[in-house]
Amino acid sequence: MAEQISSLYNSVTESVAAALSPSTAPVAGKHKFLLYGKNGWIGGMLIELARANGDEVVLGDARLENREAVLAEIEKVRPTRVLNAAGVTGRPNVDWCEFNKQTVIRTNVIGCLNLADICWQKKLHCTLYATGCIFEYDAAHPLGGGVETAFTEEDRANFDGSYYSMTKGFVEEMLRAYLDHLTVLRVRMPISDDLSPRNFITKISKYEKVVDIPNSMTVLHDLLPCSLELSRRELAGIYNFCNPGAISHNQCLEQYKKYVDPDFTWSNFTVEEQNKILAAKRSNNELDCSKLVNALPDMRIPDIHTAMAECMQRTKKNLDAQGWKPTPRGK
Length: 331
Fold this sequence. Notes:
InterPro entries: dTDP_dehydrorham_reduct (IPR005913), NAD(P)-bd_dom_sf (IPR036291), RmlD-like-bd (IPR029903). By secondary structure, the chain is an alpha/beta fold.
């Protein structure tokens, strides 16, 4: 009997091994990520992070609005996890979306829902790098209210001042039907350790004037590793994906001036003045990040003021290594 059981076990093991070719069988403890958004800013960072951990990353080629192509790619690749960092935010900013609404719909709405639905049908965990720019301060969530009145994951979008944010709010509401196999990350004003044009600090450092309003923000050095852990652990649901707390534009630029460019200067203007020069309004809010912090107690997620200071110090070190010198304003 023992020999028969051993023979059966070996036969089953060989069958499983044959079914999982070397290109599809994940290494024990590692994952095979299928990533959409390979040419994007956040997508590029995710590729490096996952591969540095020993995970396999397959770069998705299918256009997300093409459901048949996405389905065929998933069935061919057979990933253990899917990451969706694809999407359009507009160049140079979200004002672009006001004049390219059909493109926004195809990628940010149709494509996003296609991928979520396919992954749900296949019981395959998917992580979406979404946005928290779907809220604005109101009577129940006042400016300066702190974490006690900050928006939680249960709150529904209340900001439709831009076409980009309006569609993102619509999509998040529909995605709630897929949350048993989907993680939605509300990214806000993402910040990197360099002067990438997508970096929130780079953007505001180039503006002639900035508003000065406390906001939740996402320091990518701290948060992107957390996103991969949420995926690996299949911690589904909506997460406010920011460093705890809120920080104002002036406080950000003060850190930039302290560590990166000591001669940097700027001036402020009001939201009303800002609205006059923009095609779309901008979201301002504070998100409660306690759900994220509690979900990953073994991961370090510093408060936004600590995170900003650390980020600017890393930025300075990286720029020095590149031989970068600040350019005075007006030149």
